[in-house]
Request: fold
Amino acid sequence: MTQQQIIDAILAFINAKTWPESQQFVQQNALLLLTVPAEQIMDKLIAEYHDNEQAVKIIRQHQDLLRQCREVGINAALAPLTTTPKEEPSLPIFLAQELPLAEIEHRYANEWVVVEITAFDKYHNPRQGIVIAHDPQPEPLN
Reply:
């Protein structure tokens, strides 16, 4: 397991749209997320986003959940949350993650998305990007 794999798993866990999706993701990625390195990376994220209260709150909430998962098990830690909606951050997106465009299209289907293109193929077609903002409830353009 590499540090980048852990970072990618943490960001995907934090950015999961629902608590059941979060629970399933932790179950599938426990070897990455329920580790000391994951805890240390989350501490670094908190330090990096120290000036963004909303981001720090969300990172801490997810960090606490992972601690609970280690202590009482994944199902026991997340069961109370799986019946409640996941709180949407007040910011459009709080943790940028570079993704292939196909993954962005899949994750944000039926949403307005602003993407910063970060990589191109040899024909100069966009290949990867970072989601800058998205709107899960887009209104039609008039």
Remarks:
- The longest strand covers residues 126-135.
- Confidence is low (pLDDT under 50) at residues 89-94.
- The helical segments are 3-15, 19-28, 30-33, 36-48, 53-72, 74-78, 101-107.
- Strands lie at 98-100, 112-120, 126-135.
